[in-house]
């Protein structure tokens, strides 16, 4: 039985994200992602300003005046949310954990998808795929996805992005829009992303926290690697330690950005201490302009 507190959180996220979808993403999501193609709908009399390349010469010759072909987009898409549920997501030095932000972003994307009559599915993974919700339509289905994002208790600690991508390719029979939400702190997944990039419309969403980029001056601090369980004592009062930590974090971020650029893949970067709406809106608008 689902606890009342969880149902309350689901309801809160539904209200908050529905408002964002209606007020901010209205039309933006629909414009940013293509359907499967264009389907012929009808012919109609040519009007000034119509594209002459769409003139149907056979119909025009038959009626003695120009007619153009009209098409409509085959809109229905399959949207897959592939979400990293590993232990590193249970970190947040600001308002929320990374997993909490991922749940809200997943809700926004899911509600945007069903508003456009698209199907949406979910893959939750750690060092293995732990939960798969096949793509469907409807508000009840989206609420189930939100519950899974909030309620699921991961069994694994680590992260295997390559395994999640391999599973995605096995369960999807046609091209889908794939949002991959992770902190991307794992290694060795670039070949799998390249394969997914060819098969799907892949959008990485990078989750991060400000403390992953710099250490505070707080003296000796015992830290634990959430995935490996390794514990270390760090002297954060040392400028050299803080500088090395920041330098290493910057190198990892730069390498990740370079990897996405090599793949010609746009990505969204969000942080736990900042609203996620603005980065998503900027990305969607960029997609619109590119179309």
Describe the model.
- The chain has 291 residues and is an alpha/beta fold.
- The protein folds into two domains: 244 residues, 3-Layer(aba) Sandwich (Rossmann fold); 39 residues, no CATH class.
- The chain has nine helices and ten strands.
- Strands 5-4-3-6-7-10 form a six-stranded mixed sheet, sandwiched between helices. Strands 1-2 form a two-stranded antiparallel sheet.
- Helix 4 runs antiparallel to helix 5.
- The protein is elongated.
- The N and C termini lie far apart (46 Å).
- The model has no long low-confidence stretch (mean pLDDT 85).
Describe this protein with a few key phrases:
291 residues, Rossmann fold, 2 domains, 9 helices, elongated
- Beta content: 15-25%
Number of strands: 10
Q: Tell me the number of helical segments per DSSP (H or I, 4 or more residues long).
A: 9
Any low-confidence stretches, pLDDT <50, length ≥5? none
CATH topology (level 3) name of the largest domain: Rossmann fold
N-to-C SSE string, H for helix and E for strand? HHEHEEHEEHHEHEEEHEH
**Mean pLDDT, as a whole number?**
85
**Helix percentage range:** 40-55%
Structure summary:
The chain is of the alpha/beta class and 291 residues long. It is 42% helix and 23% strand.
What's the topology here?
Layout: H1 4-23, H2 28-32, E1 37-45, H3 57-63, E2 67-74, E3 78-84, H4 98-115, E4 119-125, E5 129-136, H5 139-151, H6 161-171, E6 177-182, H7 190-199, E7 201-208, E8 220-224, E9 231-235, H8 239-262, E10 268-271, H9 277-290
Parallel strand pairs: 3-4, 3-6, 6-7, 7-10
Antiparallel strand pairs: 1-2, 4-5, 8-9
Helix pairs in contact: 1-4, 1-5, 4-5, 6-7
């Amino acid at each position: 039985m689902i606890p009342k507190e969880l149902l309350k959180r689901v309801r809160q996220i539904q209200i908050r994200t529905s408002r964002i979808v209606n007020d901010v993403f209205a039309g933006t999501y629909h414009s940013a992602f293509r359907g499967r193609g264009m389907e012929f709908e009808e012919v109609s009399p040519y009007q000034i300003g119509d594209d002459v390349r769409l003139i149907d010469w056979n119909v025009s010759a038959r009626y003695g005046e120009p007619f153009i072909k009209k098409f409509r987009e085959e809109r229905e898409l399959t949207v897959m949310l592939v979400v990293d549920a590993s232990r590193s997501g249970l970190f947040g030095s600001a308002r929320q954990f990374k997993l909490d932000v991922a749940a809200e972003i997943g809700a926004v994307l899911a509600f945007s998808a069903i508003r456009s009559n698209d199907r949406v599915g979910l893959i939750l993974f750690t060092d293995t795929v732990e939960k798969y919700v096949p793509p469907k339509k409807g508000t009840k289905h989206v609420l189930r996805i939100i519950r899974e994002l909030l309620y699921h208790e991961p069994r694994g600690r680590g992260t295997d992005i390559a395994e999640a991508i391999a599973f995605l390719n096995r369960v999807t029979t046609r091209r889908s829009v794939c949002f991959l939400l992770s902190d991307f702190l794992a290694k060795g997944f670039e070949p799998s992303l390249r394969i997914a990039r060819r098969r799907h419309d892949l959008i990485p969403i990078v989750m991060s926290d400000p403390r992953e980029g710099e250490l505070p001056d707080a003296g000796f601090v015992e830290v634990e690697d959430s995935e490996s369980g390794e514990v270390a004592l760090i002297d954060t009062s040392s400028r050299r330690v803080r500088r090395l930590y920041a330098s290493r974090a910057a190198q990892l971020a730069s390498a990740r950005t370079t990897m996405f650029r090599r793949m010609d893949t746009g990505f969204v970067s969000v942080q736990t201490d900042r609203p996620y709406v603005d980065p998503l809106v900027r990305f969607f608008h960029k997609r619109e302009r590119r179309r």
